[in-house]
Every structure is written in structure tokens, then in C-alpha cells.
Write a structure and sequence with these properties.
This protein is an alpha+beta fold and 113 residues long. The chain has helices at 6-11, 57-73, and strands at 19-22, 26-30, 38-44, 81-84, 100-104. The protein has a five-stranded antiparallel β-sheet with strand order 1-2-3-5-4. It is globular and about 40 Å long. Bound molecules: adenosine monophosphate.
Length: 113
């Protein structure tokens, strides 16, 4: 685990965050720069830099199921939600700890920016 990883620090409580869901493997917290009425960042507790570094299908599937649970807890199951996974420079990934954005609470355009 890199000592300077902001998401590792949130996962272990060294940086405060507005948590909306957590379990043994994942933590979901409200984004500090929300792009929708509901905007939550979901991370695995284990430090993995990008989506491409997820070790196996279990890890990837667990992330997706935790995103579903996060969306349910945000009350987005009926209205719908969007999952965004930025991977690498062209996608604009800013934090090199794999994460999925859970966005909802408004209608969203397509294609994304
Ligand atoms: P990405 O561009 O996919 O790497 O997105 C990283 C997201 O993390 C951005 O939407 C940031 O606003 C968010 N973020 C960064 N630091 C924090 C923090 N300390 N608490 C909550 N969200 C954060």
C-alpha cells in the first residue's frame, strides 16, 4: 500500500470521509466534488492501481456487486444510476487506486464527456 494513497487513507480511517457503505472488502464514500445529486466513490480496501490491475474475475465481480449495493443504499434502484470507471490518462483517472463512481439523482446525457 503506497503511504501517500488518499483512498487507502480513507479506507483505514486516516482521512475522514462521508461513508455510505462499507464491508470487509469495500468502502463507498461521497465524492468531494460531486457531479450529480448522488455521487459516491466505491473502492476496494486493497490497494490496486487501476481497473486493469484487478487480479481476477472475483475481484472485478465483487466490485460490481458492491456498486449495486451502494446504489441501492443511495435509493437509486428505481430511478437508475450510472457507474463510471476511469482507467488511465485518457479517461482522466486522477487517483491511482481503483474505484468506480456511482452517480444518480438526475438524468444523464450520452455520450459522456
Ligand atoms: P478519478 O478521476 O476517476 O480518479 O476520480 C477520483 C475522484 O475522487 C474525483 O471525483 C475526486 O473528486 C474524488 N476524491 C478525491 N479525493 C477525495 C476525498 N478525499 N474524498 C472524497 N472524494 C475524493
Amino acid at each position: 500500500m503506497p503511504e501517500d494513497c488518499v483512498f487507502c487513507k480513507i479506507a483505514d480511517g486516516r482521512i475522514p470521509a462521508d461513508l455510505v457503505y462499507e464491508d470487509a472488502e469495500f468502502v463507498a464514500f461521497r465524492d468531494i466534488d460531486p457531479q450529480a445529486p448522488a455521487h459516491v466513490v466505491l473502492i476496494p480496501r486493497a490497494h490496486v492501481p487501476t481497473l486493469l490491475d484487478l487480479p481476477d474475475r472475483g475481484a472485478a465481480g465483487g466490485l460490481l456487486l458492491a456498486a449495486n449495493e451502494t446504489a441501492r443504499r443511495l435509493g437509486l434502484a428505481e430511478s437508475g444510476f450510472r457507474l463510471v470507471g476511469n482507467c488511465g490518462p485518457d479517461a482522466g483517472q486522477e487517483v491511482p487506486h481503483v474505484h468506480v463512481h456511482v452517480l444518480g439523482g438526475r438524468c444523464m446525457g450520452w455520450p459522456p464527456g
